[in-house]
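[retry 2/3] peroxidase: previous attempt timed out, resubmitting with same input.
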Amino acid sequence: MRSRKLTCASINFIVVLFSQSVHSQLQVGFYGNSCSLAEFIVKDEVRNSFFRDQGVAADLVRLHFHDCFVRGCDASVLIDSTPSNKAEKDSPANNPSLRGFEVIDNAKARLEAICKGVVSCADIVAFAARDSVELTGGLSYGVPAGRRDGKISLASETLTDLPPPSFNVDQLTKFFSNKGFTQEEMVTLSGAHTIGRSHCTSFSNRLYNFNGTKAQDPSLDFIYASWLKRQCPQGNTNPNLVVPMDPSSPGSTDVGYYS
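[retry 2/3] peroxidase: success.
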């Protein structure tokens, strides 16, 4: 019988880490003794995927965010749906736009081969997001690790725990405040949009029918709005039409998004 490749999606139990870590705080270098190649292997998988498709960097950063904002950073976004439960990954907020799952699964399979049952999928997601930032020109940073994987994943929770693209500044500020973030921290985190793309359908109402007025959102910068209209023409029905979040440097983690 051919063995089935272990993936993060197939893990529906809590991964028990080494005894000293179960109740301890997260720490940088957590796998230094238990699986010293953990972060290297994750970075290698991210790098291999990035060379094939540079868009995967933004995908992995978004995957980390969508994981952490629902039940915390517990890899619940990776769990597959079952006949009796629709999981997070199959909610409209994630399916079909959320990508990068295969990178996490490939890293997990390699890690299981050398450190079985040691490295959590939640930590792999966190490492992969950091590596994506670094590969696109951003600063590297130490990732405190020691997370445990959850076993509950509910699509319904994405509706309350993930901010929709329609939120304005006040709504976003309140939303992030409920998660323990200040407005300044919210703005800082929003800078992750320096890489990646957005579907025209996520914002075209602000270009052509803001609040039912059949007019442009007056708060939009005129030059930027004009550029967006050229990319997202009125009446277009292509659901896959996208534009870069940061037109000046769409593939680089820099400060262009803030401009």
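[retry 2/3] peroxidase: Confidence is low (pLDDT under 50) at residues 1-5, 11-23.
[retry 2/3] clearing retry counter.
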